[in-house]
Amino acid sequence: MLSFVVLGHSYPRFLKRNHSSTFTSPWLNASQWVRKSSTRMTLESALETKPLIDLRNKKALVTGIANNKSIAYGIAQALREAGAELGITYLPVNERVQDKIKQLTEPLEPSLFIPCDVQKPNDLDHLVSQIQSNWSQLDILVHCLAFANKEDLVGEFSKTSKSGFELALNVSAYSLIELCGKTKHLMKPGSSILTMTYLGAEKVVPNYNVMGVAKAALEASVRYLASEMGPDGIRVNAISAGPIRTLASSAIGGIMDMINHVEKNAPLRRTVTQREVGNTAAFLLSHASSGITGQVIYVDAGYQIMGAAMNH
Ligand SMILES: NC(=O)c1ccc[n+]([C@@H]2O[C@H](COP(=O)([O-])OP(=O)(O)OC[C@H]3O[C@@H](n4cnc5c(N)ncnc54)[C@H](O)[C@@H]3O)[C@@H](O)[C@H]2O)c1
Known about the structure:
Elements: E1 3-6, E2 9-12, H1 26-35, H2 40-49, E3 59-62, H3 71-81, E4 85-90, H4 95-105, E5 112-115, H5 121-134, E6 140-143, H6 162-183, E7 192-197, H7 209-229, E8 235-241, H8 247-250, H9 255-265, H10 274-284, E9 296-299
Parallel strand pairs: 3-4, 3-6, 4-5, 6-7, 7-8, 8-9
Antiparallel strand pairs: 1-2
Helix pairs in contact: 3-10, 6-7
The structure holds nicotinamide-adenine-dinucleotide.
């Protein structure tokens, strides 16, 4: 285990905490631990048994798994490892796709597996009634889906059709608002909501076009939802991920060029993985991030801080 030294004693890193009702923060624990050496064994055993990112007894709905490359899959894996009980929704394209997603997610032991096209009001109502009757509560909501027509993800932005604009905004941004509105009565204080965004919301990224506008609407929605739901103890955040090769990103013209550019220019000289996004998601969806809401958190190997390309 990683350790550091507090007043000459080694103390486990903040990633673990104890669950004794006497102590509420790892930093307080450290000083009490130093003062009361007699409590050391109890404290150490407690630190071993309860990680800071602890999602045991949490019911987590994860949308947007299409295959093993999906960011939602990385998030679902991280949430399951932290102990959450999962509900999975999938876009019902056809039976073959449904079977593949079912097979992929079986090791995660989801207790709900529900088809849901966010464009279909009946699907959303069915989803909410299934959560209500099977779980009666929802602690975690992961919105990890987006869609735009391929022809709107290349070339001149001014050629975006009205129907293409509406489609992209509806699926990629409005669906978060609708999902929150339909499920918030199932959420208790301490619940947490997460969506996925991209740098193209705030800066021009070639070919991202209408999806950039949709992500800008999504990020603004995160702030308005966080403000509305905050008084009920519900948090809403977004992760802005670096470019990752997935089904959705393959539709964006020149995505491989963007990934290569990030690998050359991001401070970490690489892009990120689904699991890295998943790990940050687990943090944002857990009590460990209890003071964070309405934010866009970058998981992009640092690319967002760069103001110019590196000289190579
Ligand atoms: N891949 C990247 O580089 C990247 C970077 C930043 C943000 N994101 C965002 O991450 C999220 C997940 O995308 P991904 O890259 O993992 O790709 P993905 O193709 O694996 O996931 C997109 C998901 O959206 C679902 N979807 C599309 N239309 C839907 C509808 N009408 N109803 C319900 N579900 C629908 C698809 O079925 C799929 O599961 C998206 O919001 C995307 O914009 C991706």
